[in-house]
Automatic annotation (TrEMBL):
Protein name in the entry: Vacuolar protein sorting-associated protein 41 homolog
Ranges where the RING-type domain occurs: 791-839
Intervals holding CHCR repeats: 568-712
Matches recorded under PANTHER family: VACUOLAR PROTEIN SORTING VPS41, VACUOLAR PROTEIN SORTING-ASSOCIATED PROTEIN 41 HOMOLOG
GO molecular function: zinc ion binding
UniProt biased composition (Basic and acidic residues): 1-13
Family the entry assigns: Belongs to the VPS41 family.
Primary localization class, coarse: cytoplasm
Keyword Zinc: yes
Gene Ontology BP term (one): cellular response to starvation
Acidic residues: bias regions: 14-26
Length: 854
C-alpha cells in the first residue's frame, strides 16, 4: 500500500505507521496533493463539516457556520456567514448558479450566487440535508428538498410562492439525500428510499443490513453513477442498485419503475464515502486496527481503494493509506468523499484537511518508473506517449537511463542506447565519448558512433582508433573496414600504423589494415604490394576494382604463385590490358606456370596462341601428357614433324600413332599398334576409322598366326569385311579361343543385317505409298481462278473482261496458268502437256490438271 506524502507537513504531523513500507512494486492508480492556499488558513481556525464540488468551483462548509466558495486550487473567491453553528450540507444545481445550504440550528437558505434571491427559512429542529433540483436554474424546476425528522419537498408555484409537501417521515433522522434527474434518494435510520418526482411515487426501500451500527456515527453514503444507477455504502456493505422500467403488463397498482440490486458485497472496513470511476468504484474507508501494545482499537489512517465490483463480490485494484491531519482523532462520520465528474477528481474531506486525488497521467507514470529505476520502461512510455507528456523530455529520460547503465557497469548497453537517445545532437555525442574515455570504455561506444550525414569531429574518431591500435589490432582492423575513410584524417592513421609496424613488421593484421588505408587514400600500388606479400584473397578484387593491370605486369609470377586459377582467369579476361606476349615473356623462366596459362588460353580459343603451339608440345609432354593427345587432335597450327620427333623421343606410342596417321603413314601406325601396343581392339578401331581395304588386309595378315587376334577380328569385322575371307585363311588345326562364340556372333550379325534391310524396305515402301496418296489428293483439289490471275505466257488477265465471250484456259498442278492459245506445242508424249516454266527450272514438269472452256 502506497503512503501519500504530505507537502509542507510539520514534524508533529508525521505518520504513526512507521512500519509500513515506503515503496511498492505496484504502481498506484491515483496521485494525491493537499488542497492548500486559502483552505489552509480556513482549517487552521475552523474545521470542515461538508463540501460539494462543481466542475468550476468548490463550496466548503465549516463547523462555525461559514460557507466558502473556492477555485480548484483552493483560493477563496466568496464567503458567506450563514450561521453560528455547523453547516450540515451544501447543494449546487448543474449550472452552478444556485446553492442550497442547511445548518445545525435549523436554517435553510436557497439563493442564486449572482442574484441573492431565493428561499430563507428557520426551522425549530436541525436540518441535516438539502438538495436542489439538478436543473433548478430553469423556471420550471424550482424545487428542492430538506431533511431533518422528515423529508420536505419545496416547489415554487405560479404565484411565486413556495409550496411544501412531505415526502416521508416517521423513520428517524434523514442523514443523506442525493437528487439525480427525476429521482431523489435519501437515507434514514431504517434504510434507503428512492422517490420518482415525475410520477410522485416512491419506488423502493432498501433496508439497512447492520442495524447494530449507530446511524449518526456510521452514516450512509449515497452516490448516483448515472441517471439510473445508485451506489449505496453503509457500514461495511456496498450495494449497487439499478432503476429499471417496469413492463406495462405487470404494472397494475405498482410504480412504473422498480429497483434491482445488481451487486452487493461486504468490505473489510467502514465506508465513509464512495464515487464512480468508469466501471470501477472509489471507496473511502474509516480504519480501526488493534494495537500490539494496547487492548483497545485505535484509529489508523483512512484508506482510499479502487475496486472492481462483481456480481457477488469485488476485486481490489489499488489501495492507498492517506496521512491526513489529525486522523487519529477522526470518526467515520468526519470523512467525506466528493468527486468531480468532468475531470475525475476526488476530494477527501476531513475536519482539518482536504486531500485531492486524481488519476495519474503519463507524466506521473514516468515519474514512478524513474523513481523505481525502471529507466527502459520510462523511456519506452515517453516515446509512445510523447504527444501527451508535459513535464518530461525523452532525451532527458534517455540520459538518465544511460547514466544509470554506466553506474551499473553495463557499458555496452549504455553505448547502444546512445544511438537512440543522443540522436543528432553532436555536442551530447562528444560529451558521451569523452565520458567513456574517462572510464576507459571507448571500445564499447565505438561501434555506435554516427557515421552517416551527421558526424563528429575527426579528432573523436582518431582518438578511438588510436585507443584500439594500442590494445586491440583486430578491433582496429574491424573499425577501419566498417568506418568510411572520410570520418578521420587518413594520413594520421597511416602514420600511426606505420609506427606500430616498426615494432612488429610482420604483423599480418596491421599490414592488411595498412593496405586498406592505402586503398582509401587511392595509393593502390602500395596496397597491391602489401596484398601480394601477404597473399591476400582481396588482391584480385583490388586489381579489378581499380584497374591496376599496368601495375601487375611485372608481378604475374607472384600472382600465379598465390592462386594459379584466379590469376590465369584474370589475365585471359583482360587480354586487352595485358597482352599474351607479355604474359609469356614474364613466365618464360617458369615453364610449369607458362603451360597452365597457354593450356587455358588454348581451351578458350584454339587460334589465339597459335604461335606458341610448337612450344606447347614440349610443355604438354613434360607437365601434362593426358592433355597432349587432345591438343594434337584440336590444334591445326602445331608442326607435325616436331611433334612426332618429341613423341618418338619420349616413346609416346598413342600420340605417335595419331601423328603417323595424321601424316598419312597409316600402315606404320597400324604396325605400331599391333607390335608395340598389341591391342587388337585398338587396331580394329583404327582400321575402321581409316576404312582402307589395304589396312584390313595388313591387319588380317598380321593376325593370321595369332589366335587371340583372330578371335578379336571374328568378333568385330563382320560389318566391314566379309568374314569368309578371314575364315578361309585360318590354318587347319589351329586352336582359336572362343571360336564357336565368334561364329555364332557372325551369324547373328548377318541375320541382324538382313532384318534391318527388310525393315528399311518396308518403311521405304510405306513412306512412298503415303507420299503418293498425298500427292494424288493434292492434285485432285480444285484451283481458284479469278480476275487477279494472269497468263504466264502473255501476262494478260487469265479471264476475259467480257465473260460472255468464248475462252479456254489451262491450269497446271504447279498452279501456273495459260491461255490455251498461248501454250507451246505439246511435248513428245502425245496428249500430255507440261508447264514450260517448271520444266525450264527443272522442278519436275507439271501436267495440265484443268482445262476451262466457254
Amino acid at each position: 500500500m502506497a503512503e501519500v506524502e504530505e507537502k509542507g507537513r510539520k514534524p508533529s504531523e508525521e505518520s504513526t505507521d512507521d512500519s509500513e513500507e515506503e515503496d511498492s512494486e505496484e504502481e498506484p492508480k491515483l496521485k494525491y496533493e493537499r488542497l492548500a492556499n486559502g483552505v489552509t488558513e480556513i482549517l487552521q481556525k475552523d474545521a470542515a463539516s461538508c463540501m460539494t464540488v462543481h466542475d468550476k468551483f468548490l463550496a466548503l462548509g465549516t463547523h462555525f457556520g461559514k460557507v466558502f466558495l473556492l477555485d480548484i486550487q483552493g483560493n477563496v473567491t466568496q464567503k458567506f456567514e450563514i450561521s453560528p453553528v455547523r453547516i450540515n450540507q451544501i447543494s449546487l444545481d448543474e449550472s452552478g448558479e444556485h446553492v442550497g445550504i442547511c445548518s445545525e440550528d435549523g436554517k435553510v437558505q436557497v439563493f442564486g450566487l449572482y442574484t441573492r434571491e431565493g428561499f430563507h427559512e428557520n426551522f425549530d429542529c436541525p436540518v441535516k440535508v438539502v438538495a436542489l433540483h439538478p436543473r433548478f436554474s430553469s423556471s420550471n424546476y424550482k424545487q428542492f428538498v430538506t431533511g431533518g425528522n422528515k423529508l420536505l419537498l419545496y416547489e415554487r408555484n405560479w404565484l411565486n410562492r413556495w409550496k411544501t409537501s412531505t415526502l416521508h417521515e416517521g423513520e428517524g433522522t434523514i442523514t443523506n439525500v442525493q437528487w439525480r434527474a427525476n429521482l431523489i434518494a435519501w437515507a434514514n435510520n431504517v434504510g434507503v428510499k428512492i422517490y420518482d418526482i415525475s410520477t410522485k411515487q416512491r419506488i423502493t426501500n432498501v433496508l439497512r443490513d447492520n442495524v447494530s451500527l449507530r446511524p449518526d456515527m456510521y452514516p450512509c453514503s449515497l452516490c448516483w453513477k448515472d441517471n439510473s444507477t445508485l451506489i449505496i455504502g453503509w457500514g461495511s456493505t456496498v450495494k449497487i442498485c439499478a432503476v429499471k422500467e417496469r413492463d406495462h403488463t405487470e404494472m397494475r397498482d405498482l410504480p412504473s419503475r422498480y429497483v434491482e440490486i445488481v451487486s452487493a458485497f461486504e468490505t473489510e472496513f467502514f465506508i465513509s464515502g464512495l464515487a464512480p470511476l468508469a466501471d470501477q468504484l472509489v471507496n473511502l474507508y474509516f480504519v480501526k486496527e488493534n494495537s500490539d501494545h494496547m487492548e483497545e482499537e485505535f484509529r489508523a489512517r483512512p484508506r482510499l481503494d479502487i475496486i472492481q465490483p462483481l456480481p457477488e463480490g469485488f476485486e481490489e485494484i489499488s489501495s492507498d493509506a492517506l496521512t491526513v491531519r489529525n486522523f487519529q482523532e477522526n470518526e467515520c462520520r468526519d470523512y467525506q468523499l466528493e468527486h468531480s465528474e468532468g475531470e475525475s477528481l476526488f476530494y477527501i474531506i476531513s475536519p482539518k484537511d482536504i486531500v485531492v486525488a486524481k488519476e495519474r497521467d503519463q507524466d506521473d507514470h514516468i515519474d514512478w518508473l524513474l523513481d523505481k529505476k525502471k529507466y527502459e520502461e520510462a523511456l519506452m512510455a515517453a516515446e509512445i506517449s510523447f504527444k501527451n507528456i508535459k513535464r518530461h523530455e525523452i532525451q532527458k529520460i534517455g540520459m538518465a537511463y544511460i547514466n544509470h547503465l554506466v553506474e551499473k557497469g553495463d557499458y555496452d548497453t549504455a553505448a547502444r542506447k546512445c544511438q537512440k537517445v543522443l540522436g543528432k545532437n553532436m555536442e551530447l555525442w562528444e560529451n558521451e565519448v569523452y565520458r567513456f574515455k574517462t572510464i576507459g570504455q571507448l571500445k564499447a561506444i565505438s561501434q555506435y558512433l554516427p557515421r552517416g550525414d551527421m558526424r563528429l569531429r575527426p579528432a573523436i574518431y582518431e582518438m578511438i582508433l588510436n585507443e584500439f591500435l594500442k590494445t586491440d589490432y583486430e578491433g582496429f582492423a574491424t573499425l577501419i573496414r566498417e568506418w568510411p575513410g572520410e570520418l578521420y584524417n587518413n594520413m594520421t592513421i597511416v602514420q600511426a600504423v606505420a609506427d606500430h609496424l616498426k615494432k612488429d613488421p610482420t604483423n599480418s593484421t596491421l599490414l592488411t589494415t595498412l593496405a586498406e588505408l592505402y586503398t582509401y587514400d587511392q595509393r593502390y600500388d602500395r596496397a597491391l604490394e602489401i596484398y601480394l606479400r601477404l597473399r591476400h584473397k582481396d588482391v584480385y578484387q583490388l586489381i579489378h576494382k581499380h584497374n591496376l593491370f599496368s601495375s601487375i605486369e611485372d608481378k604475374i609470377v607472384l600472382l600465379m604463385d598465390f592462386d594459379k586459377e584466379k590469376a590465369v582467369d584474370m589475365l585471359l579476361d583482360n587480354e586487352d590490358k595485358i597482352s599474351i606476349d607479355r604474359v609469356v615473356e614474364e613466365l618464360r623462366d617458369r615453364p610449369e606456370l607458362l603451360h597452365i596459362y597457354l593450356h587455358k588460353l588454348f581451351k578458350r580459343d584454339h587460334h589465339k596462341g597459335q604461335r606458341y603451339h610448337e612450344r606447347q608440345i614440349g610443355l604438354y609432354a613434360e607437365y601434362d601428357r593426358p592433355n597432349l593427345l587432345p591438343f594434337l587432335r584440336d590444334s591445326i597450327h602445331c608442326p607435325l614433324e616436331k611433334a612426332l620427333e618429341i613423341c618418338q623421343e619420349r616413346n609416346f606410342v598413342e600420340e605417335t600413332v595419331f601423328l603417323l596417321s595424321r601424316m598419312g603413314n597409316c600402315r606404320r601406325a597400324l604396325q605400331m599398334i599391333m607390335e608395340e601396343l598389341e591391342d587388337v581392339d585398338k587396331a580394329i578401331e583404327f582400321a575402321k576409322e581409316q576404312d582402307d581395304a589395304e589396312l584390313w588386309e595388313d591387319l588380317i595378315s598380321y593376325s593370321i598366326d595369332k589366335p587371340p587376334f583372330i578371335t578379336g577380328l571374328l568378333n568385330n569385322i563382320g560389318t566391314h569385311v566379309d568374314p569368309i575371307l578371314l575364315i578361309h585363311r585360318i590354318k587347319e588345326g589351329m586352336e582359336i579361343p572362343n571360336l564357336r562364340d565368334s561364329l555364332v556372333k557372325i551369324l547373328q550379325d548377318y541375320n541382324l543385317q538382313i532384318l534391318l534391310r527388310e525393315g528399311c524396305k518396308k518403311i521405304l515402301v510405306a513412306d512412298s505409298l503415303s507420299l503418293l496418296q498425298k500427292m494424288h489428293r493434292t492434285q485432285m483439289r480444285g484451283v481458284r481462278v479469278d480476275e487477279e490471275n494472269i497468263c504466264e505466257s502473255c501476262h494478260a488477265s487469265i479471264l476475259p473482261s467480257d465473260m460472255a465471250q468464248n475462252f479456254s484456259v489451262v491450269v497446271f498442278h504447279c498452279r501456273h496458268m495459260f491461255h490455251k492459245e498461248c501454250l507451246p506445242s505439246p511435248g513428245t508424249i502425245p496428249g500430255v502437256q507440261f508447264c514450260n516454266i517448271c520444266s525450264a527450272k527443272r522442278r519436275g514438269p507439271g501436267s495440265g490438271i484443268l482445262e476451262m472452256k466457254k
